[in-house]
Amino acid sequence: MTADTPTGRTLPVVTLFESYGSGAAYVGPKVAEALGLPFHQQAFSSEEIEAGETRRENEGLISRVFGALGTSYGGVDVGDVTAAQRDSYELTMENTRIVLDEAAQGGVIVGRNGAFILTDRPGALHVRLDGPLQQRLERAARDSGIDLARAEKRQKREDQVRAVMSIDLYGWDPRKDEYYDLVINTGRLDLDTAVEIIVAASRVRAQQPQGRGAPPQG
User: Fold this and answer.
1) Closest to 153 (Cα-Cα) out of 32, 61, 10, 20
2) Which of 33, 106, 108, 111 has its CB 3.0 to 4.6 Å from that of 42, i.e. a possible disulfide?
3) Which pLDDT value is given to residue 88?
């Protein structure tokens, strides 16, 4: 692993993945602030995924993602299979480059398959946020200023799309726990407590820089 700084110190990294409404938009920046690190937000917001499904004809990265997913995500026109395969490869390479660049800066990385890409990075902490569905929906509706019915539609769409993107582009399912050091139920723990736990765990993990190796498959 190439050193992140001229002194050879590897900068701390925390990756976050959440089920919709688990609080990553609050937890991520708070963890970054507490650790004195940059915050790297996820590639697509809930609003962009919502718009991407209804206006796939628009150009842009989110449209490329829906196109590259092909038949894996219901309702997407398959189009040219060769072009979809090329887009999948290009998206994977582009995203991997971004994650590696962000990791070199240190910080909190939300989404982008960070736990998979950086699984063996020394000192990295990989966290998944989850919680009971109803509590997640209520939090998302409140935080986004939308009604519960719209939050429910976003949840069904977003949790599926984010999982399909990871499965199709990287061959892993982010809803499973093999690649995470820590899974936090934000239905039982308030978000500030989740922040405290992640910050403490990151500081401990930074003192144990050895790689972990890829989790067993199957």
Assistant:
1) 20
2) 111
3) 81
